[in-house]
Amino acid sequence: MVEFWTLMAFIPAGLALNLSPGADMMFCLGLGLRSGPKAAVAASAGISTGSMVHVALAGLGLGAVVAALPWMFDVIRWVGVAYLLWLAWGALRAGPVARAEVQPVPARQAFRDGMVVNLLNPKVILFVLAFLPQFVDPAQGSILGQFLIFGLVLAVGGFCINGGVGIFAGALRRRLTGPRFARGLGLVSAGIFAALAARLAIMERA
Fold it and tell me: CB–CB of 165/29 below 8 Å?
């Protein structure tokens, strides 16, 4: 379905993209600082799941429809901004509380948050539409199947890298004890989520 050498060329390109700091990586960093490595890994899995949804939609042609309709793009973008600000507010409220009293975000909720944040980032739609078709060859069979294979490469690489960043942040969190550090970690997490919201708010479609 995908030519072997095309796949071999795609893997390092996809890995380079995964290693580039972006919204997904920063989200896992912020969640790892707030709730530890387990939540960050779950969020990374949610992000990868969301990216596969984007890839499937692009392969079905629905992503092109969203990209072509400015109003739909903007609706998704502003809902994403609101969601990130809501997460920032949650982290900010937890900041003043001693770390022993803070309830970490459950893995299921972290997975959901990661997936929702990814799905509500319309820039991912544009990225998928711009990047993946360069490697898709209609002569090799199902277009959707090829999209899913390439998307799976990106999703697995992203899960490993973003999860690794989250684990590092979670380990750092464990070393920082006391109410002052707990407040600082809450503020840092809230700042990361707010910065991601601002980035999403001011980004352009092209």
Answer: yes
Token readout for 109 is: 């909720």
Backbone angles phi, psi at 97, to 5 degrees: -85, 140
Residue with tokens 């380990």: 171
- The predicted model gives 32-51 an average pLDDT of 93
For residues 101 and 161, which has the higher predicted lDDT (pLDDT)? 161
Closest CA to 47 of 123, 105, 116: 116
φ, ψ (nearest 5 deg) of residue 135: -105, -5
Rounded Cα gap, residues 166 and 174, in angstroms:
12
Helix axes 37-60, 122-131, angle to 10 degrees: 60
Distances (CA, A) of 118 to 43, 111, 125, 181: 10, 11, 10, 29
pLDDT tens for each residue of 129-178 = 888 888 888 888 888 999 999 999 999 999 999 999 999 988 887 776 55
Alpha carbons 116 and 189: distance in angstroms, whole number: 18
pLDDT, tens digit (0-9, with 9 covering 90-100), for 170-202: 888 777 655 555 666 667 778 888 888 888 788
CA angle in degrees (0–180, nearest 5) for 180-186-50: 155
Task: List the alpha helices (DSSP H) in the chain.
Answer: 4-19, 23-35, 37-60, 62-68, 70-94, 107-119, 122-131, 143-175, 179-202
- Taking residues 57-82, report their average pLDDT: 83
